[in-house]
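As a warm-up, study this chain.
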Amino acid sequence: MDDDGISQVAILIILLIMSAFFSACEAAFNDYSRIRMKNLACSNNKKAELVIRLDEKSDSLISTILIFNNTFNITAASLAVYIFSKNFESNGIAISTTLILLAILIFGELIPKGLAQFAPEKFAMFAAPIMSIFIFLCSPINAVIAALKKMFYKLFETEIQPSITEDELRTMIDEVENEGVINKNESDLIRSAIEFNETVVEDIYTPRIEIVGIEEDESLDEIKEKFLVSGYSRLPVFQGDMDNIVGVLHEKDFYQALSRKEKDIKKLVSKIIYITPNKKISELLKELQRSKAHMAAVIDEYGGTEGIVTMEDIIEELVGEIWDEHDEVIEWFKKIGDDKYLVSCNADVDDMFELFNIEPDEEVDVTTVNGWITMLFEEIPDVGGKMVYKNLHITITKAEAKRVLEIQVEKINEEENKTL
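Now compare it with the structure written out below.
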């Protein structure tokens, strides 16, 4: 092989090296952790900052990588055909095609991409200064490509999707928890924060039937008794009936007034805001903060009181139940045997489905177990009433005239289910 042949082989090797570099860049810039890179950038790592800036112009970055990678691959293939055709006249094209395909596949794609994926952040930071030069050189072509892409977006009305969806974020949290990076409490808190904006007041309010309220003209002794029995620090105040809630009385203000021997509680009543059941609790929290209120009255479509919701109810959606020394600890699901539970009918029906690992036959429009039971029975069942739902044997254990208070639920196997 003469000097020209040696120089041509050297150029071919350089072309393969450049192809390998751009293939590795493609893998690294696609696979590196954005969160990790942003943390490095926040620590004044200049190369990490450059990677973030390049990633903000991802269209230009990707198109530059593809343009140069394909250019080097095509040039290498053409040069290989020329070299082998010159030295192997009869079979040169066949030999060159086979060898260059293998060389590009193995040394130009598979190996560099595999190596870059081992440490994508390091390689991305190494390659960022070089890539910024190539992006500058390719800027006229990138401008044309960007204009064409914009035209096609308008032509086909293509909707630009977010880089990550909520479902993907939940999956990421599960993976991070499984890897031991965060514990279950931390992952539950993150999931609660994600779901916080989706939760509406109807999911968390205290229903009207359970409200402990004060009539505006009640005696001081009666008010004192309600504070003592209920254990609440704030109680709604109403005029006439519960459909006309006018404000909130704080226990501290009430006892201070007693010590001053004041008898009129009307001037102690603080304001309450009025909301609809479909209001998102994230919006309600901001509204309560702005108005410096701690309680809201939930109003139905007829203007009547449907329930109340407090600041504590909202916070509990994020951090879980908050108990103080006066709260009665409620056990929603009390295990009394193998696959047998006493279930409070104030419990969330979705929590019960999850406990027994069942999927309802149709979408359930109620939130409490009581609502679900009355929907199944199509009435308020008496104590002792029984029903089989899927593989659950349900018995009514406590009930009032207007609602069911407690049920016994036993999970039964398929054979037992057939005999019932």
